[in-house]
Amino acid sequence: MWPFIVGGAAVAVAIAKSVVDRWKEEERWEEEQKRLEEEEKKRLLDSGILEVDEMTGKEFERFLDVHFRNFGYGVTLTQDSQDYGADLILYKDGLKTVVQAKRSKNPVGIKAVQEVAGAVRHYKGNKGRVITNNRFTENAYNLAESNDIELWDRKRLIEFILTAKKCK
Asked: What angle do the packed helices 138-146 and 110-122 form, to 10 degrees?
């Protein structure tokens, strides 16, 4: 009976060691993920307009996310598909702003304005905004004005980036 008890204890110790090892491995993985997220956040905060020009659409959304958070906004990134025309929802001073992010090599037209105008209603926002690294077409400006949508073109985005860099 004595060998059976010793053998059972050895198995229990081995299982406990395995559980502890796995827990430590998961903890190291979580720490590594946090470190990588912080590096990514720093990279995005350090990016200028030339880096923005090379980003994917999703990277641009994340870029805006970390910058608006840096300015004290609450931010929700919408899902990748079926987002109803919104990429970010900003919360500050009791207002909800619905944002369409357009990182583009071409001028942005009325489609982005139409999408965010619908998204403002869908998300019950107070206002809408389209942000691009490019410029807007004249028709986009006309539609934005009649729908009370803010348009942030390349110049306004650069001002935002420079202000963010001064706040660091």
From this structure: 20
**Sheet architecture: strand order including 127-132:** 74-77, 88-92, 95-102, 127-132, 149-152
Instruction: Give me the long-range contacts of 146-152 (CB less than 8 A, separation at least 24).
Output: 147/113, 147/117, 149/113, 149/116, 149/117, 149/120, 151/113
Q: Phi first, then psi: what are they for 88, rounded to 5°?
A: -135, 150
Q: What pLDDT band is residue 16 in, cutting at 50, 70 and 90?
A: low
**CB contact set of 5 (below 8 Å; sequence gap of 6+):** none
User: Are residues 134 and 162 in contact, defined by beta-carbon separation less than 8 angstroms?
Assistant: no
Pairing mode of beta strands 149-152, 127-132:
parallel
What does the alpha-carbon distance between residue 165 and residue 168 come to, in Å, rounded to a whole number? 5
CA–CA distance, 103 with 128 (Å, rounded to integer):
17
Q: How far apart are CA 77 and CA 79, in angstroms?
A: 7
What's residue 32's pLDDT? 76
Please name every residue paired with 151 in a beta bridge, in sequence order, or none if there are none.
130
Answer whether 67's CB lies under 8 Å from 164's CB: yes
Q: What pLDDT, in 10s, does the model give residues 56-107?
A: 999 999 999 999 998 999 999 997 766 788 999 999 999 999 999 999 999 9
